[in-house]
Amino acid sequence: MASDKELSDFLKGVEKRAFKRAAYAVRDDDAALDIVQDSMIRLAGKYADRPPAELPLLFNRILSNATMDWFRRQKVRNSVVRNFSDLEGGDADEDVDFLETLEALSGTAGAESVVDEVSRAEVLLLIEEEVSRLPARQREAFLLRYWEEFDVSDTAASMGCSEGSVKTHCSRAVHALAKALKLRGITP
């Protein structure tokens, strides 16, 4: 059974990654924040009695389900009512969190020159943009495996699919990212 402190520490540790994952999926920061908050409340309300080792898998499954629920609600809402603002030609890729990128790079501030820091930030933004363009299942598998560092079986359980599907989604995501980044002049 997870103590209140263990649950709180887990939620604090996962909040930024969960927000990014939800934001990649729904492409709306406000909706992503709502999804993450709802997922955290569900975890704390229904699964606080579980051992701490089970929390990451449970939370990621809850987050995936909450994201799918959001898409279902949007589909129903959009079939009944169309907002005029939805008809405008806004660019969804304009929202970039520069402060978060700088915060991630703050640990390397003394080791790199300003030119290197700016170059690294630009590359990270390009990578983030390309990850957001991946198909939903590929993006989810990629983020769980390589960002959340889940193993194949935990990723499969979280996504509700077979381990073979996870491997296929990850392989396709890696190849698509490599191709897209190579076209942008970014090579390993």
Please outline the helices and strands.
Layout: H1 4-26, H2 29-46, H3 55-80, H4 98-105, H5 114-133, H6 136-147, H7 152-159, H8 163-183
Helix pairs in contact: 1-2, 1-3, 1-6, 2-3, 3-7, 5-8, 6-7, 6-8, 7-8
Task: Explain this structure.
This protein has 188 residues and is an all-alpha fold. It is built from eight helices and no strands. Helix 6 packs across helix 8 (163-183). Residues 80-90 have low confidence and may be disordered.
Notable traits:
0% strand; mainly alpha; 72% helix; globular; 188 residues
Condensed summary:
By secondary structure, this protein is mainly α.
Low-confidence stretches: 80-90
> In terms of structural class, how would the helical and strand content be classed?
mainly alpha
Number of strands: 0
Number of helical runs? 8
Percent strand equals: under 5%
Mean pLDDT: 81
Largest sheet: none
What general form does the structure show?
Answer: globular
Oligomer: single chain
Ends: how far apart? Answer: 43 Å
Radius of gyration, rounded?
18 Å
H/E series, N to C?
HHHHHHHH
Binned, the helix content reads: over 70%
